[in-house]
Amino acid sequence: xxxxxxxxxxxxxxxxxxxxxxxxxxxxxxxxxxxxxxxxxxxxxxxxxxxxxxxxxxxxxxxxxxxxxxxxxxxxxxxxxxxxxxxxxxxxxxxxxxxxxxxxxxxxxxxxxxxxxxxxxxxxxxxxxxxxxxxxxxxxxxxxxxxxxxxxxxxxxxxxxxxxxxxx
Length: 168
Prior knowledge:
The chain has about 170 residues and is of the alpha+beta class. About 25% of the residues lie in helices and about 30% in strands. The chain has a single domain (about 5-165), classed as Aminopeptidase (3-Layer(aba) Sandwich), CATH 3.40.630.30. The chain is globular and about 40 Å long.
């Protein structure tokens, strides 16, 4: 079976919402707001890149990218997340494929880098690093990671869209 990575299309929204909700539901670290965050990013025009993994015309994975600021300034940096893969297809490389394609497209769009808050074991495999130079309030530095696409590595406080502050 062939998996294709493509941009979100009109009509994908509800499938992405349900996929994200289901993928995060069993996760102990989940805020339960991940699907709502994607909706809020989309509604606010901040969903800079939204990719799906599709197999046999069925969406089995999704990744969102949105603009971020570092020390209050936007400089063509993006945040990765939420990312989700259907439970029965996790740990098969689909998430990494979504991330790699997203990074490739961000670079083509002139993006200078991508940042995230997450587990190093998951994201180091696609090139993200954590060196303490990029911080996120209330989160240990080891979970704040970035991938520089052009220019210098970031230094300062990372801020995501207000959509990420949604409560359950």
